[in-house]
Amino acid sequence: MRNPKPQEWDAKVLSKKKIADYKPFNFVDGEGVRNSLYVSGCLFACEGCFNQAVQNFNYGVPFTNDLLERIIADLAHSYVQGLTLLGGEPFLNTEVCLTVVDKVREVYGDTKDIWSWSGFTYDELLLESPDKLELLDKIDILVDGRFELSKKNLSLQFRGSSNQRIIDVKKSKAAGEVVLWDKLRDAQWQFEQIKKQDLI
Questions:
Q1: CA-wise closest residue to 120 among 1, 36, 13
Q2: Separation of alpha carbons 29 and 117, rounded Å
Q3: Is residue 96 scored above 50 in pLDDT?
Q4: Beta carbons of 11 and 91 less than 8 angstroms apart
Q5: Residues 164-167: contacts with CB within 8 Å, 24+ apart?
Q6: Where are the beta strands (DSSP E) in 1-122?
Q7: Which residues pair with 23 in a beta bridge?
Q8: Is the pLDDT of residue 1 over 80?
Q9: What tens digit of pLDDT does each residue of 36-55 get?
């Protein structure tokens, strides 16, 4: 796993403006029905990453205006709650992500929410370059932090390891400190002990 110094990784230099995948109408990348955009490229190289191929900035296909128009059209359905940015690393693909986010806000205002996953923590992003700060400012929910294999926990909601947080960005900015998403509901796995005599 890599730990960058503030502003060490420049999205304008690193990003090839490529998309690994686009998955409309899914239920796994945040609350409600969502349209998910997977951008290409990530330098964190977390051990156990489930999407290693997408770490390559050259993976996938170029982002196009046709795809942008499709995303906007897919969001028009009343049952779609919002957009999710994943990867790869959205904050190392700020030009693509800001293009999409700005269009979503132009067309839908705040009626569609925007989630993003990031290997950066919220606190790290506050020390980052203007483009990363702009993207952070324009999203609603941030799932932050590197995936840590030693802290992997399958009972966590929308996260892979226990160090990661689901952060309400707007409430955090208003409070001047991290405010967690108020709908956080991690599963509590409880298994009743099966006694030998119950099997007879």
A1: 1
A2: 9
A3: yes
A4: yes
A5: 165/121, 165/122, 166/141, 166/142, 167/122, 167/141, 167/142, 167/143
A6: 18-26, 33-39, 61-62, 80-86, 113-117
A7: 36
A8: no
A9: 999 999 999 988 887 889 99
Strand order in the sheet with 61-62: 61-62, 18-26, 33-39, 80-86, 113-117, 141-144, 165-168
Q: How many residues does the chain have?
A: 200
Q: What's the half-sphere exposure (Cβ side, CA atoms, 13 Å) at 71?
A: 32
Query: How much is the pLDDT for 154?
Result: 76
The pLDDT assigned to 183 comes to: 87
Nearest to 22 by CA among 79, 50, 64: 64
Amino acid identity of residue 121, one-letter, is: T
3-state secondary structure 133-184: HHHHHHCCEEEECCCCHHHECCCCCCCCECCCEEEEHHHHHHHCCCCECCCC
- Residue 14: what residue type? L
What single-letter amino acid sits at 104? Answer: V
